[in-house]
Design a protein that fits this description.
The structure is a single chain. 40% of the residues lie in helices and 9% in strands. The protein is α/β, with parallel strands linked by helices and 490 residues long.
Length: 490
């Protein structure tokens, strides 16, 4: 069994730090993220350039004006390149919504098709526009990512690449901007390798300067409890916002495809959504509102600082969401009552897409177990992958080739035998235990993205995520702590 690093029991339950907003001062989101009332943020997508900007943002601006007098809604979040790279400027979108709502806006900066120049430009203009809150994400597989290589199915290299969220955080911190910086974490992983790769990289993001975390979207409340218990076990007090979603009829009709990168639905849950939708759009919405309101109440009781709600596109739906959420929050103020209601409502439905799903802790979401307790919250066995002999040899050989013992020109020639084309610099190789990071279709160095499939296969579909190999070497060398270390720049 592979043990976690730095396990420490919490001597007292952590305070249920929750999100509130006081709009006097420079950055109320930052000042009050660690305390106050639980609240919600409304997510809006930056629209495609197929439509003129002014007409494309009308619905979002209407929502922004509506939330101005809604205390429970603390602000808005603007996504970046969520469905493609051909979108309007997210800074312009965020500035418009901030002006219309009078509330804080979190600007997402996606690394998809981005480089340092684009990120620096967005950060500079966001600062000038008075936006003080940034969510850094690496981004999902780009529609512009070419197919190439030896197989017509094998991904080539994106011409503009992917800028890791860690690089965005480091760029913002290095430039001295006073942003409140967030990053993403995907707790909806169902094998041990993917699960810990997410948690280790989360800790690396925090070490690099992330002030808060936002989860990927999902419905498995066991995984949200797992994330909170993991943070409590490690004594990490970073605020976390849970991203939830209301699905449109079109979303449900294409339920057989991935709705969100890195999140796959279980067959029973997908079937339930489709049954609800087959009755009527009204019945489907009513069922979703009930489920969403239970999730919101559960997130509050589990200790999340707030929720971020995607899929609310008009004022009428917003009113229904808030009405149902307030009723459910008032009804379920005790964890045991809520957990029983959630389990009863879904009749013990499994939300995991795998029959043998991995959870860090045994017996999650028990009505009797609320906060993390080292005596009762037992860790499950952790079956990490084994490093292949080839990877052990490659790691050792690359280390020798690029060491001071080898003349640099000769070392690069030999290293090119293992990693043909472009040899990463020494620092990049160290983060990957001397395995070539160009094996990853996104050329990521500091850890996995959140887009892998439930079985651990890369979202590009060719093979298991490259970082499974890195994790295997780290585990066998007893150096898992290196996967959490902050990234340093020369």
């Amino acid at each position: 069994m592979v043990r976690l690093m730095k396990e420490k029991p919490v001597s007292t339950p952590p305070s249920n730090a929750q999100l509130t907003m006081d709009f006097s001062g420079d950055n109320p989101f930052s000042r009050h993220l660690n305390g106050g009332e639980f609240s919600a943020m409304i997510e809006c997508a930056t629209p495609s350039t197929e439509q003129p900007f002014d007409s494309a943002v009308v619905m979002s601006e209407t929502l922004a004006r509506k939330i101005k007098d809604m205390p429970f809604i603390s602000g808005m979040l603007v996504t970046d390149r969520q469905k493609g790279e051909d979108t309007h400027d997210p800074v312009d979108m965020a500035a418009r919504l901030a002006a219309a709502s009078g509330k804080p806006v979190v600007l997402t900066i996606s690394g998809k098709g981005s480089d340092e120049k684009r990120v620096r430009d967005l950060l500079a203009r966001a600062s000038s526009a008075g936006i003080r809150n940034i969510l850094a994400v690496t981004g999902d597989k780009s529609e512009d990512h070419p197919v190439g290589g030896h197989s017509f199915l094998r991904p080539g290299k994106h011409p503009k690449g992917y800028f890791d969220s860690i690089e965005t955080i480091l760029t913002a911190r290095g430039a001295g901007y006073p942003f409140c910086l967030g990053a993403g974490v995907n707790p909806y992983k169902y094998n041990a390798a993917d699960t810990y790769l997410q948690y280790y990289k989360m800790i690396r993001k925090i070490a690099c300067g992330a002030d808060f975390m936002v989860t990927h979207v999902g419905w498995d409340m066991k995984k949200l409890q797992e994330l909170q218990w993991y943070l409590q076990m490690r004594e990490i007090g970073v605020p976390v916002i849970a991203r939830l979603a209301l699905l449109s009829p079109d979303d449900i009709r294409r339920i057989d495809r991935n709705l969100f990168p890195g999140v796959c639905l279980s067959r029973p849950f997908a079937a339930a959504l489709q049954r609800e939708s087959d009755l009527s759009d009204t019945q489907s919405l009513a069922a979703q509102l009930q489920r969403l309101s239970l999730q919101i109440a559960g997130c509050k009781l589990l200790g999340f600082n707030g929720v971020q709600i995607a899929g609310v596109k008009d004022v009428q739906t917003l009113d229904m969401v808030l009405k149902r959420a307030k009723e459910t929050l008032n009804r379920y103020q005790d964890y045991e009552d809520w957990a029983t209601a959630w389990n009863d409502h879904h009749r013990a439905m499994e939300f995991s897409p795998l029959a043998q799903a991995y959870y860090v802790f045994k017996n999650p979401l028990s009505p009797k177990q609320w906060l993390y307790d080292p005596e009762t919250c037992k860790l499950t066995d952790c079956p990490f992958p084994h490093a292949s002999r080839r990877d052990h040899l490659q790691s050792a050989f690359m280390d020798f080739c690029l060491s001071d013992k080898m003349p640099e020109p000769v070392g690069k020639i030999l290293a090119n035998l293992i990693a043909p084309g472009h040899i990463p610099d020494r620092k990049q190789l160290e983060y990957c235990f001397n395995l070539c990071p160009h094996t990853c279709p996104k050329d990521l160095v500091y850890g996995a993205c959140g887009g892998s499939r439930p079985d651990g296969v890369c979202e590009f579909g060719q093979e298991v995520c490259f970082f499974h190999r890195v994790l295997a070497l780290a585990a066998e060398k007893h150096l898992l702590d290196r996967l959490e270390e902050p990234v340093t720049r020369d």
